[in-house]
Amino acid sequence: MKITTYNVNGIKARLPRLLEYLEEDGPDIVCLQELKASDETFPESEIRAAGYGAVWHGQKSWNGVAVLARGIDPVERQRGLGGEPEDDHSRYLECAVGDLVVASIYLPNGNPRPGPKFDYKLRWIDRLRARAAALLAQEVPAVLAGDYNVIPNDDDTYSVRAMQDDALMQPESRSGYRALLAQGWTDSLRTRHPAGGVWTFWDYQAGAWARDAGFRIDHLLLSPQAADRLVDAGVDKAYRGREKASDHAPTWVRLR
DNA sequence: ATGGCTTAGTTCCTAAGA
């Protein structure tokens, strides 16, 4: 089965691309981020007509995450992360799809740094780690898929120099991500492409796509029970080159 | 690279993204 994470950068603007992807590629499960749409304006009927059940956690203008499943309705397990009741960003949605637990994650960007947005990013990573530990304790096949806004290693970017002051590449961001992996999660794309040089995001600006100036920030983390079933992982890069594309490409893992 | 794009809101501009 194929599980995809896709930061669509606006589900309304991206709906034609998303429907193409569902029809042409037919992934079994899709985790979406940056819906930029309220719960009421999520295009449920179009997605259902494409053959997918959906659970979504929207927000007007910003953020917003969803889980889609081909031919079945995902069952919601948790909406939002604990640990900060005043946090009203829609950035975490956890569902069950068959025997699999799947979470769609939109980790805060954290720029500019230093500042409250970067502090929020680091707290959010800590809160995610608490939830991830609880999931591991359940000993189930689980996939934490999403836009982590973390460039884990120097070989995950076209230019360390260009990104060195960015929140995506700070030591604190990286150590939070590494601590997550150290709990026992497998970075599926890294496992399948250990040499690095695989991008999931290309900026709209400065001809980044044409220059292949990208980096890797969309990740699919597997619990041990899911990692046992890992077949392959990759990026459906061609969708970044289409008309009206998102700045992220669909990124996927295939499990037995 | 202080921004070059892109999206959403209610707009003719601002905020946010990465």
SS content category:
alpha+beta
List SSEs in N-to-C order: EHEHEEEEEHEHHEHEEEHEE
* N-end to C-end Cα span: 6 Å
Overall residue-averaged pLDDT value: 97
Tally the beta strands. Answer: 14
Q: Provide the helix percentage.
A: 25-40%
Q: Output the radius of gyration.
A: 17 Å
Return residue spans where pLDDT drops below 50 for at least 5 consecutive residues: none
Envelope shape? globular
How do the strands and helices of this protein lay out in sequence?
Blueprint: E1 2-7, H1 11-25, E2 29-33, H2 44-49, E3 52-57, E4 65-70, E5 75-79, E6 92-97, E7 100-106, H3 116-137, E8 142-147, H4 160-163, H5 171-182, E9 186-187, H6 188-192, E10 201-202, E11 214-215, E12 218-222, H7 224-227, E13 230-235, E14 251-255
The structure holds one DNA strand of 18 nucleotides.
Which features characterize this protein?
alpha+beta; 256 residues; 27% strand; DNA-binding; 7 helices; six-stranded mixed β-sheet; 14 strands; globular
Describe the structure.
By secondary structure, the protein is α+β, with helices and mostly antiparallel strands. The chain has seven helices and 14 strands. The protein has helices at 11-25, 44-49, 116-137, 160-163, 171-182, 188-192, 224-227; strands at 2-7, 29-33, 52-57, 65-70, 75-79, 92-97, 100-106, 142-147, 186-187, 201-202, 214-215, 218-222, 230-235, 251-255. The strands form three sheets. The chain has a six-stranded mixed β-sheet with strand order 3-4-2-1-14-13. Strands 5-6-7-8-12-9 form a six-stranded mixed β-sheet. Strands 10-11 form a two-stranded antiparallel ribbon. Helix 1 (11-25) links the parallel strand 1 (2-7) and strand 2. The N and C termini lie close together (6 Å).
